[in-house]
Design a protein that fits this description.
It is built from one helix and five strands. A five-stranded mixed β-sheet has the order 2-1-5-3-4, with no helix packed on it. The radius of gyration is 11 Å and the shape is globular. Helices cover 11% and strands 34% of the residues. The termini are far apart. The chain is mainly beta and 65 residues long.
Length: 65
């Protein structure tokens, strides 16, 4: 199915947000996620289903100055 991930069209076979992170090799990373503009806590990623056209944001903290 086609999703928008961080503003870019992306093809995926993932059915859940957790599976998408796994597919993107980010399952062990400390990231924040949002689905269609709504924050999804890490504890709910396994049960957050995806559907074609969804918009997913995956962000990580950065340090710097």
């Amino acid at each position: 199915m086609e999703l928008i991930v961080n503003g870019r069209k992306s093809e995926t076979g993932a059915q859940t947000l957790a599976a998408l992170l796994d597919e993107q090799e980010l399952s062990d990373a400390k990231v924040a996620t949002a689905l269609n503009g709504h924050f999804v806590p890490a504890a709910k990623r396994d049960t957050t289903n995806l559907k074609a056209g969804d918009s997913v944001e995956i962000v990580s903290a950065r340090q710097g100055g």
